[in-house]
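Please study the protein below:
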Amino acid sequence: MIKKIRSILSKHFSHFILFLSAILVMICALNFLYLFDITAQSNDECLWRDSDFFSEKNIIRFDLVKVDGVTWSAGIRNGDRLISINGKPAINTLVASKTLDVVSSGDYAVYVVERNGKQFTTNVYIKKLVSFNNLAFTLLSSFWLIVGFFVLMAKPEGKIQRLFFSVAAFSVLFSMNSLLTRGQQVDNPILRNLFLLRTVDILILAGGVFWAFSMVRFFSVFPIESNFERKKWIRKTLILSPWIISALVLAARIRFVYIDRTQLGAIITGNFVGFLIVTSLVTSFIQLIISYRKVDAPGEKRALRIILTSHTIGLSAIIYFILFTATTNQVVFNDPLLFMPIILIAIIPIAFGYAIFRYALMDIREAVKSTIVYGTATVSIAAVYFIIMLLLGQVVSSAIGTQYQGAIAGFVFVVFAIVFQSTKDHFQDYLTQKFYPEQFAFQKGLLKFSGDIAKVVGIENILNSTRELYVESLRIGKYGLMLKKNGGLFHLLQHHGINELQPQLFNGLQSLSQFFVERKKNNKRIVLERQNFYNILGDDATIFINEGIFSIIPLMINDRLIGLLLFGLKQTGSQFDGKDLDLLISAANQTAISIENARLYHSEIEKKRLERDLENARHIQESLLPKSIPVFKNLELFGITRPAQHVGGDYYDFIRVSDTKLFAIVGDVSGKGLSAALYMSKLQTMIRLYCADNKSPKEILTEVNKKLFGDMERNYFITVTLAMIDIEKGKIQLCRAGHPSTLLFDENGCERIKSSGIGLGLDKGDVFDASLEEVEREIKQGGLLAIYSDGISEAMNDKQDEFGEENIVRVLKENLHSRVDDIQNRLLSEVNSFCGGAEQHDDITLLLVKFS
């Protein structure tokens, strides 16, 4: 539910701010109304003192009558007794104040006064006294609201801008103190409704607490982000604290004020909130001083100097007011101007406004200036066109009659709508060129680039065109382009003005991609700005900040992040914003499409080239396999290989060395594809080279290993079984270099020959030679020798079960008396049946020798 509400607010944020601002403006207007009318106090420049407020015999006497003041001029002196005002008895000071408040400023009130037992009547000129402290905070909040509204509307998604507006909003809530000034002493409509009274009271207290913490948060990110703001636990503390403190203050308020109705409870809770506000002002002042010392840019430093000066004046005014009222709270009626300096706190938002507009802080000046220029131009063009069309319509109507006036009006409206938009766009382009030449050139460059980049072929050419635009044409001082590789690594392929950024950055949590997708979903500008670096990038943010990067724009295809564009400041020294950002995002989108198209094109070309190479390699491999199987008396030979890919890494061969002697070999290169096939071809060449009548299998494999070791990559090796069959002597000599067992069948069963040995290419010589074992077996009539690759024994079905050596033995034993080609067909059929529809994941090779 909360997520849905956030999504709705995000999509309609501008409308929400307009609505909220309208409410806050009404509160400010109500504050001024109360200050100058409802709660304004009539002042006769003296004090009234009750002898016993709650007694029927209470007497009101004049005190501290200002010499030459209005009461003094009416003949009243210290010690005189007030009997009545305008005919109404002065029962106590509360009743007398209410009576006097109805008298307008500049009018006279009729006082009946008693001195030394004698009464006399006199007319007293009445002035009005405004609460300067409430007026000061009302002015402060009103000015802050005005500036804050423009700041936020210039960049609604900005973190700094939102915090600045929150300061304004909460200050307006706290300024509602003006609505409750003087309490029961005035006829206040709010006091007549208990629910309304308590609602206003709660808003004042909560507003004060949140105002204090929002100020601290704002100055922790403005003008530069402080170190403690980057720490999540501190940031969370600043966010949660106002909620907790507000709850505690309101709980105390309800207990001691709403229930017990103690004045002390009201004073303590009110003063606590005031203390928080003063503390936050002091804290903000310190933060501002620290930031001022860190800032180097001359323009920004001048702007901060103005803000710092206003802050000093405002803080001094508050301290003066607190100290002055604590020592001389009696002179407000006689010398109200002594309390007026508190109004100087209103200079803080005024200084902010001037600094923001004058020095383009918080990305506002250009936005407001553009709004004024383009808005005025649009209204002017609309007015001119409307007058022209109106006159044209009247001329046509007078010429052809009034009966067609409705149709003419409709036609004129359509023409107006069509022509107006085109003219307005052209005129705005002219204004941009006239008043914003740099922006005009920037926009033209980006628009031209967006059109041209689609025609550029090749990733390198696209990257070069991108660099040429941003560095040479637009003269951006800090620029970088990163593309995402496999595994989430961002590679810095191009950069200018960036010195120490690592060529590779890892985004393991994909928070960056999620951030951009979320902004796209909420129709926000798809850009990561410096103020959000730490929230999204974590520790990597420091790297970008140190390099002077202010804006990161994604290169995205749909919702897939393929790269990043990094930007520093514009040529003028300000951060990219508004329409400039929109154009950069548009250019980035076009760049992403071009890069992706280039990648796809390159991938397709590479794929076709690879397919061509593999096809050629397949033909080569097929040519390396025995074209015909040698024929020997009393022997049946058969061999087959079935690669898992176009080109396999398995190999078999029959090598005839005499009429009674041959070598049978099966090899398996680790891996598959073209590389495996190339190693297989090397193996075949060497085996054929070294196989001779006078050499044993062990000697041959030893020589081959020495030659292959230097040529093979370390992540490759070859398993081999090499058997020499001597028909005349009826013997088999066999070596197994890491290959699966060799199966030897006769009428008595099956022997699994597992002689020791490691694969070719794993060791240069000593270990290989020591591990390699050669065995010798006799040939028996009707026997069968089976050499196979692990592609048969490790063939899997959909359940990931392996076919296994036991099944190989079973099938061969069952078909021992069949022809070798039938045996082979039966075994491979069993393998296919076992695997079902599962994909073949390894090469299958089988070599059979049957002794007749």
